[in-house]
User: What shape does this take?
Amino acid sequence: MGDAGLSALRSLLSEPRLGDGQTRVSLGHEGADDTLGGGLPKGTLHEVFAVDSSHGAAATGFAAGLGLRLGGGKPLLWVRQDFSALEFGELHGAGLLELGLNPDAMILVRAANAAQVLRAAAEGVACAALGAVVAEIPAEPKLLDLVASRRLAFAAAQKNVTAILVRLAAEPDASAAETRWAVRAARSLDEDDWGTAMFEAELLRNRHGRTGAWVMEWNSDDRIFREPDKAAHSGGVAAAAADRPPAAPRAGLRRAG
Amino acid sequence: MRPLVIVAKIDNALRLTAIDRKAAVSNLAVGMSLADARAMIPDVTVVEADEDADRALLDSIAEWCDRYTPLVALDPPNGLLLDVTGATALFGGECALLGGIRTALRKQGFAVKAALAGTSAAARALAHFTDGAIAAPGEEAQAVAPLPVAALNLDASIQHALKRAGLKTIGDVAQRQRTELARRFGGEMVATLDCVLGRAETPISPRRPLPDTSAEHRFADPVTNDAVIRESILVLGRTLAEVLESRGEGARALVASFFRADGVVRRIGIETGKPLRDPLLIERLFRERLDALADPLDPGFGFDLIRLEASRTDCFDSEMAALTDSNENKEIAILIDRLSARFGAERVLKFLAQDTHIPEAASATIPAQYSKPATIAWEKLRGANEAPKRPLRLFAKPEPIEVMAEVPDGPPLRFRWRRLLHAVARAEGPERIAMEWWRTQKPQPTRDYYRVEDSEGRRFWLYRDGLFERETDRPRWYVHGLFA
Assistant: This one.
């Protein structure tokens, strides 16, 4: 084994480090960007959990938004497992378009099992022409362990391609993720003009900073996250927050680091 | 051991179709009825003929013969025709080639008769009635002359007529006037005779299409080592690339054939989205494919021949490609090829807009390798600053739900899906979507779609199947998709 191989192994064993040259990409949501120190770093691994299975589509939408922001206009590789399509629905081209993504700039891999998802994701992050790789791994397969997660994070850093794991029907476990999010759908604020993608996104873990929880709206026209429009919906956020604080502790999701 | 005979039902009687040596010594013959045979030798082992198995066996021998030439034709029930034009030098000359085939097949336990001649018909005639004959070009007539007329493979009636005319050998027949023969037996018989005499050739029809380009590597000692196998694919890829380059082509489909010393042949194919001739990429795609095989490549005691074929090629304009294709596009194309090689082309997809308003058909997915620039543009359904009109996730099979509505044709108030009760906080609809009757055999009911948000903020795409009263009395409801 050459020096290159050895150093690769060494990096694999150590925690992935955020280099100085790492660019952070703003999500557009002021509070979140502030906590994140300007945004999410490219070429790292991020995990998006749905708080429960019924919020799977919200987690998917949030991950799609992250992928679009971090992808920087480059094509997106989306890998999903057969089980995930049966349980939560197949990714829909027209729906992606409605969220502001370009279906023509996406490659969808239908993987049969978690091993294939991981394999395809690894191939994806090794391709510098891609902007980001979104990989859906439902449930908690044994092979998605800390080593697999580190391997993916390491590969993502090599070519500066962002990896986003969508975890539906799963609880967090030890991982090498730069950030970890728990997402649930948030209620629309406006009685008439409702239905844009709204999330209660809790940043459960941030390797290089604080955590927090926010209600975010995805703007499909500007392709950016933002605070729900307070002026248009007076008191909306407060009402939502009082009703069910997004930061309400959830033992299960907080457990692991 | 008792004599062995194979029988099949011919004209309502069981007749012998094949016999072993012992049976032959006991004066049994093919064509004899089983009753007659039993009368002569009561103690025979009888096995019923299995035509399918025979054909499969012949096919597997043909597959093995593929190592000598890609032009192998079946000559049922028990013959094979190999076109070895230009291939003999590879095997040390005609004599060595023929000897090699005979020895190798005998080693595999077959009784073999083989011959080599300038035309397939002459070789066939010689092989059926002699063994090991080689007729030099132009000497076919001389070589086949002593063979019985049966070697002409003519209709039984013609054979019988020739016999009655006192013509016993092909030589006898060849001496007759062609016009006389044509008048008596027809032009076809003369054409057949010409082929056997080496005067004319009818092309054989090979069982596999001839590849565009191929390169092969023979090993004196069969190889089992993975690294050697990969290295030889790389080397063959280079040879192939040179040929393709000289023709301005690239491969769209490649097949690697692995010939095992014991006769088993395994073929592995890959396809590419764009014409390809980079040997490193070719090797890499095969590595992906080989790694992903559910039934891995088993070298057994080793492969003695590896052949790489470009089974489909396309024009490869390198300058053009350099101009129009960015490096990034090329990288993506390579990624798609690699993922397709590993997971199968049907699992690596691109979205394709379709000209229909039926939701499940409006966004198709097609193998990314086959995708072409889209002809139909994506059409956004929502206006600026409006909420999405189509869900992010769509169920391939809409899931039935129980719905409570105020009136049968009104929006839903509550619904139960997967045992969970959802209270509808907001609903918008209906968006009426009529099924396009020209697309389906049976008329499909019209669907009334509702965009719905429940009390928790979860957003759904529901539809009522069938117009109330006009199409159905009890419309059923489904969840078709989920919004973010």
User: Anything to note?
Assistant: Chain A touches chain B through 62 residues (CB under 8 Å). The radius of gyration of chain A is 18 Å. DSSP finds nine helices and twelve strands in chain A.
